[in-house]
Amino acid sequence: MSNPAARNAIAQHVEDWISTAITVAPAGHIPLLFLSGAQGSGKSTALRQAAASLTAPVAIASLDDFYLTRTARAHLANTISPLLATRGPPGTHDLPLLRATLASLRAASDRSATSIPVFDKLADDRAASSAWRVFQGRPAAIVIEGWLMGALPDATAPSSAPLNEVEAQDPAGTWRRFQEEALAGGYARLWDEADGFFHILAPGFDTVLGWRLEQEASLWQARGTPMPEDRRAWAARFIQYYERITRRMLEGGRRPGTDLLIDGNRCGLPPPP
Questions:
Q1: Distances (CA, A) of 51 to 17, 46, 47, 131, 238
Q2: Does some domain include residue 144?
Q3: C-beta of residue 176 within 8 angstroms of C-beta of residue 12
Q4: Mean of the pLDDT values across residues 4-15?
Q5: pLDDT band, residue 273 (cuts 50/70/90)
Q6: pTM (2 decimals)?
Q7: Which domain holds residue 177?
Q8: Is the separation of the CB atoms in 213 and 112 below 8 Å?
Q9: DSSP letters of the chain?
Q10: What's the structural domain count of the chain?
């Protein structure tokens, strides 16, 4: 199980990072910050705790809440690759919606109410707008967290040998090429707008499955229902969609920023010598 004290330790690092960005920002400028971390690394919890501890108003959101709708992903699956029906990889996010939300937050006044989308992961679709979160006022900073924030593209990925069973279903590299082109395009342009990156670095990809299972169990617990046994197999396969780029980011394929190494219990580690 996760360690609340360790989560708090991560949150303190994130809080300091946000606070510094606000302090050094030019007058009138709202810093845009991106927080990355593998699935289940504790980034969402750390960000919520950090934002709650700051006296300045900080607008936070998850890249996950900007997934394309199920219908939009079905269209990609039918026209490009069946693997694109599964949310998560580059190209399955609604970047125009994200940009519109960022623009609204940047233009907000002290009296504004800005809607922020919500994605229902168990329904695998965007929630109705009536269920979206609302940020009140003008933010001192905007922080978006997500597993791939700052990920760099790799043009050789489409022709590389498959890493797992999911990639084996992409023998021509069509799905991987679509992701790399997305990373080199819309995502790169989004990264260019950042005022800073913070990367929570897992000890290795093998740790991610255990974290993802904890995350899945929490989603079901929130609904008052035990996690079905078949969801374990589902989670093990689901993280294969993320494996290549997660490994790349852990190996240095990410935009430069503040790095926090953590262990399997999500405790911060000293930097390597």
A1: 11, 9, 6, 21, 29
A2: yes
A3: no
A4: 74
A5: very low
A6: 0.90
A7: 4-261
A8: no
A9: ---HHHHHHHHHHHHHHHHHHHHHSPTT---EEEEEE-TTSSHHHHHHHHHHH-SS-EEEEEGGGGBPPHHHHHHHHHHT-GGGGSSSSTTSB-HHHHHHHHHHHHT--TT-EEEE--EETTTTEEPPGGG-EEEES--SEEEEEETTTTBPP-TTGGGSPP-SHHHHT-TT-HHHHHHHHHIIIIIHHHHHT-SEEEEEE-S-THHHHHHHHHHHHHHHHHTT-PPPTHHHHHHHHHGGGTHHHHHHHHTT-B---EEEEB-TTS-B-PPP-
A10: 1
Q: Half-sphere exposure of residue 32, counting CA atoms within 13 Å on the CB side?
A: 15
**Exposed e or buried b per residue across 113-152, where buried means at least 16 C-beta atoms within 10 angstroms of its C-beta:** ebebbbbeeeeebbeeeeeeeebeebbbbbbbbbbbbbbb
Residue 269 lies in a domain: no
**CB of 167 within 8 A of CB of 42?**
no
Task: Please state, rounded to an integer, the average pLDDT across all residues of the chain.
Answer: 91
What CATH number is given to the structural domain containing 253?
A: 3.40.50.300
Domain assignment present for residue 270? The answer is no
The answer to whether position 268 is within a domain reads no
The C-alpha atoms of residue 124 and residue 145 are separated, in whole angstroms, by 19
CA atoms of 156 and 224, how far apart (whole Å): 45
- Please state the length of the chain: 273
Strand partners, 198: 35, 258
